[in-house]
Amino acid sequence: MTVDAPAVTAAPSGGGVDAAAAASTHVIAHPHVLYVGTPAYLICSTNADGSPNLAAASSHWALGDMLCLGLEAEGQTAVNIAERPGITISFPSARLWPALVRLSHLTGRDPVPIDKAARYTYEHDKFTAARLTPQPSDLVDAPRVKECALQFEAEVRRLTPGLDGSYFMVEAEVLRVHADPALVPEGTGEIDPRRWHPLVYAFRHFFDRGDEVGWLPSSRLAPPPVID
What we know:
Blueprint: H1 19-25, E1 38-39, E2 41-46, E3 52-57, E4 60-63, E5 66-72, H2 76-83, E6 86-91, H3 97-103, E7 106-107, E8 121-122, H4 126-130, E9 134-135, E10 144-145, E11 150-161, E12 167-179, E13 200-202, E14 205-207
Parallel strand pairs: 7-8
Antiparallel strand pairs: 1-13, 2-3, 2-6, 4-5, 5-12, 6-11, 9-10, 11-12, 13-14
């Protein structure tokens, strides 16, 4: 997976919180990564020869029609999107977790960068290696992942280098959303969150999404509010 976050080494005290009280409820943790739990995804870009490059990743967030993706600077994906900005982002469900493991130590860079050589092996056809199927897109050259129930076509608008140079913050505009019909209530165009179970990545482990515990009033598929 991409963009390992640094471990937390200390947390400042302050704000009037009693230190003894705080110590009784929490301990100082030193996680080796900071992936607290977000959906994993598969990003596909286009190589210079027109072939697809598929990679597994997890660092991302969304605002409106824009996605911000965290991607390794030395990966083939970063090379591709700097020159060919059309990409797809396909979100796997829980059953597809083995495919992400198969991709986790493969790279489309040839030769493999020195800093990646100990962990990565070059593979040109990563769809076959992952046992996944490319599906043609409508608006970009990069294919989607057929086995994924939720797929985005997008165009990269800006790449911003990270502070240490090891990653890019990639801003991509979503142009089209493809969904399994089972996820979309008829006549709504919305994704029903009760039917959608993304593969969640937390501290290097994979999980299915848990049970619903609530919703925001702004949800277009939420039930009527309960009046006390």
